[in-house]
Amino acid sequence: MNNKKYWCAFSRLTNTGTAFVNTLIHNFKSAELAWHAKEYDLQKIEGLRKTSVENFLEERKKVNPDECIEYIENRGIQFICPEDSDYPYQLKHIFNPPIGLYVLGDLKSCNLERTLAVVGSRKASENSKTVLRKILSGFHDTDICIVSGMAEGIDTAAHKAAIENNIKTIAVLGGGFDKIYPKSNIKLFNQIKEGNGAVITEYWCSEDAISWHFPLRNRIVSGLSKGVLVAEAALKSGAMITAKLALEQGKELMCMPGLISNPNTEGIYKLIKTGASVITNTEDILDALNWRITNQTQESVNTEQNQIFTSDEQLVIECIKKDMLTMDELILKTNLNINDLMVILTKLELNGTISSTEGGKYISMV
């Protein structure tokens, strides 16, 4: 505990970078010794700039290690430092590993051996979010864990798909727990920490989710994962930064293709041309990562596939399999009256055969 409070104090500093702290602790072999280091000893460390040393010394005066750890514990937040046995081992080997993780929820319930990071555009198309949801539904009731950044768009779709399919998810924030961003995801934040996985961050509770935090956040998203799935990404985007990090970290990089006319797929096709795996269904991910799902899940999938449908139901399914369609479009294609069609759509949606999107279209889930 003595050393842990100093790790926590270091993570409390807002103007002293992680690389500086890691260098400090590496040289002094102890967080406690590094925290109490004299200016003279700090200036002798190769690679530390004079201004960085001065910033640390000034900021250190305002932080009390005992108060830091006490505050976190009183709030029911778990703090994990690199010396703890439950610090994710994958993160110990990335460049510039976080000096500590603040955790809400149950990180131990997440299988860190079967982690899939999902990243993509904040302004993702309804098509990509729906297809992603369909692909992730293939992991229903397995021990696979989805890792993402709880941003709008693809991140949110990935976390929600995990919750819908009873699999764990880890949200990595770009700010502190008191500054949830975007605010529209506060409900999702609560859902994850209250039984669906864990929310983690390297930032102190009151720290804002500012722009330069997100590229740093991305190294944790990819670092925690066995493979990274990119679902929509413009050429210059956070998702492309994560893809680059994934390659540097030796992770399996996968891409979900989309409409060529969509600017948010330009990054996708660039990655595919350079060797990223193409993902169009759940099995593609399993093959890329050499994973196998449990028999229970496979039996569930087989049961769904063996369902018996009426001729009208089969007609609707076949139409939707070819393209996402609205109810009006289905009426034109099937010649069914609206009342019969509504009954069919309701039944198929309840048994998981189809799903409706936010844009009022229906997509096949089988």
Describe it for me?
The protein is built from 18 helices and eleven strands. With 366 residues, the protein is of the alpha/beta class. The protein folds into three domains: 2-74, DNA polymerase, domain 1; 106-298, 3-Layer(aba) Sandwich (Rossmann fold); 307-364, Orthogonal Bundle (Arc Repressor Mutant, subunit A), CATH 1.10.10.10. The strands form two sheets. Strands 1-2-6-5-4-3-7-8-9 form a nine-stranded mixed sheet, with helices on both faces. β5 (169-172), α10 (186-196) and β6 form a beta-alpha-beta unit. α8 runs parallel beside α9 (154-164). The longest helix has 13 residues, at 338-350. It is elongated. The termini are far apart. Mean pLDDT is 91; it is low at 295-305.
Radius of gyration: 23 Å
Mean pLDDT across all amino acids: 91
Number of discrete helical segments: 18
Q: Can you give the helix content as a percent range?
A: 40-55%
Strand arrangement within the widest β-sheet reads: 1-2-6-5-4-3-7-8-9
Alpha-beta classification: alpha/beta
Extended strand count:
11
Please tell me the total number of domains. 3
Helix and strand sequence: HHHHHHEHEEHEHEHEHEHEHEHHHHHEE
Q: What CATH architecture of the largest domain would you give?
A: 3-Layer(aba) Sandwich
The separation of the N and C termini measures: 51 Å
Overall CATH class of the largest domain? Alpha Beta
Strand content: 5-15%
CATH topology of the largest domain: Rossmann fold
Task: Describe the sheet with the most strands.
Answer: 9 strands, mixed
Shape: elongated
Low-confidence stretches: 295-305
